[in-house]
Design brief:
By secondary structure, the chain is mainly alpha-helical. Helix content is about 70%, strand content about 5%. It is built from 9 helices and 2 strands; from the N terminus they run ααααααββααα. It has helices at about 1-10, 20-40, 50-60, 65-70, 80-90, 90-95, 110-125, 145-155, 160-190, and strands at about 100, 105. Helix 1 (about 1-10) packs across helix 3, helix 5 packs across helix 9 and helix 7 packs across helix 8.
Length: about 190
């Protein structure tokens, strides 16, 4: 998710360093994955999304000397506290989705909502225009599919199941982005 964004950054000049660059890179990477998959699905070329993302990742890898030093700058904030808060913030989701002897463990609202998100992501991983996951043959309309499209695209080229992507990887990533976005907003509002 991060490397394709850094590939785009390396083509221009992005003034951010450290945690700001990492947060912006993850956000741009997610938006890039979803936008490519969504846009290319309309013209029947969604299968080239991993190829385009790989191209941007290769560009960033070739130019790594230009940006790797920028990630090491500007880490003076209370990052241990922020990362710990992001982990605690995601606990309600991360503790669900584990396979045990009793079956798939779900906590609180993650049962219904999580199963819906996984079913929709599964549908999106195998088709360009999704059908309603709970009503066969009915096209899905008027639903915000971007999160589900993101984890569906990740499942196409990562060796993780949709369950692990939804409950563990995406939950931690979104929590990290939310906490750092709030931290950036508080710095901006406090002029500090």
């Amino acid at each position: 998710t991060y490397l394709p964004a850094e590939g785009i950054f390396s083509l221009g000049k992005v003034p951010y360093t450290g945690w700001r660059r990492l947060t912006l890179g993850l956000t741009v990477g997610i938006v890039l994955i979803v936008s490519l998959a969504y846009g290319l699905s309309f013209i029947g070329l969604r299968y080239i999304t991993p190829i385009l993302l790989s191209f941007f990742a290769v560009v960033s890898t070739i130019r790594w000397k230009q940006w790797i030093g920028l990630l090491k700058i500007d880490w003076k904030a209370p990052h241990v506290f922020l990362l710990l808060f992001a982990a605690v913030f995601s606990l309600s989701v991360v503790t669900s989705g584990w396979q045990t002897k009793a079956g798939l463990e779900m906590r609180s609202a993650n049962g219904q909502d999580g199963i819906w998100n996984i079913a929709l992501a599964q549908e999106l991983a195998h088709s360009d225009l999704p059908q309603h996951p709970s009503i066969a043959g009915l096209p899905l309309k008027g639903y915000h599919i971007f999160y589900n499209l993101w984890i569906a695209e990740l499942s196409r080229f990562l060796p993780l199941s949709l369950i692990h992507l939804h409950y563990h990887f995406a939950a931690l990533t979104m929590s990290f982005l939310f906490v750092y976005a709030m931290y950036a907003l508080s710095l901006r509002l406090s002029n500090n």
